[in-house]
Design brief:
Length: 286
């Protein structure tokens, strides 16, 4: 098993050749600030982390999340009692239909500042199934021809909150906020070709809520958007996070897409989620 020797104080084990790593040997609640810095460095490198052996609950997740930065806000979901920054997602064994997050997406991509980090902790995880799948938007960029990058560099994506409530409302156990109208009417511009503020690596900012490109119609935009989404979900750009008990999953939200796998009927799954404030996506230098 490959261990990344660029990290000495924490154990970093890559999950695939494209993105994702398992982290062992850290205590994010009581560990010192150097541990948090190293995990953040691993996150910038791998974008998706499965931090194993974390004994968390809502209060401890709150403390861990706030060590990585202020809460991003969440205009869609009602938080848990006592914690403004934590949402509890519950799937009971006899629940049917889609699971939350079943389509490939980026969390809150239609905000001016989409969350920089999403954290998910499994209070109850199925013994098998219920993985979360991720894909790297940096690998999508790397896979494009120079001419395609040039074309996309001239485009601005329009990301809309339209339909977000409808997608969430089919989850009968998920309490939603009263902001429906504001969310439905939110449209935000993001450059299509962006760069990571720390690593400088370029990525394609695309998600399912990109309705059209600025100055173009939805009909004109859809083939380009669909091409990028199809490119993004190619398996060689993916990793799969398996939720063992005591796993804290965290991801660099704007640099990946993710999808919840609906393959655990008959099992209960209870997750706590918190998000960390991100930056306004930055257009890549030409
Ligand atoms: Fe999500």
């Amino acid at each position: 098993m490959l261990r990344d020797d660029r990290f000495e104080t924490i154990e970093v084990i890559p999950i695939t050749g494209s993105l994702g790593a398992e982290i062992r040997g850290v205590d994010l609640v009581d560990g010192d600030d150097d541990v948090v810095s190293e995990v953040r460095r691993a996150l910038d490198e791998y974008h998706v982390l499965a931090v194993r052996d974390q004994k968390l609950d809502a209060e401890r997740l709150h403390r861990v999340a706030r060590r990585f930065g202020p809460f991003s806000g969440n205009p869609v979901h009602t938080p848990m009692d006592g914690f403004d920054d934590i949402v509890r997602f519950v799937r009971e064994p006899d629940d049917t239909g889609k699971v939350i997050g079943e389509e490939w997406h980026m969390d809150l991509a239609w905000l001016e500042k989409p969350p920089g980090i999403t954290m998910l902790f499994g209070e109850v995880v199925p013994p098998v199934g219920g993985d979360t799948c991720f894909t790297s938007l940096e690998k999508v960029y790397d896979s494009l021809s120079p001419r395609m990058v040039e074309l996309l560099s001239g485009l601005t994506g329009m990301h809309s909150g339209r339909g977000v409530f409808a997608v969430n409302a089919i989850q009968k156990r998920l309490p939603l906020t009263a902001n429906m109208e504001a969310v439905e009417n939110t449209v935000v511009e993001h450059p299509v070709i962006c760069e990571h503020p720390v690593t400088g690596r370029k990525y394609v900012f695309v998600s399912g809520v990109l309705t059209h490109f600025k100055g173009m119609t939805e009909d004109e935009s859809r083939p380009i958007r669909d091409f990028l989404m199809a490119r993004a979900i190619r398996p060689e750009f993916n990793c799969r996070l398996r939720w063992e008990p005591n796993t804290l999953g965290m991801w660099n939200n704007p640099y990946v897409l993710h999808t919840a796998i609906n393959d655990y009927p008959g099992y209960r799954r209870v997750m706590y989620r918190s998000t960390v404030e991100g930056a306004v996506p930055r257009a890549a230098a030409a």
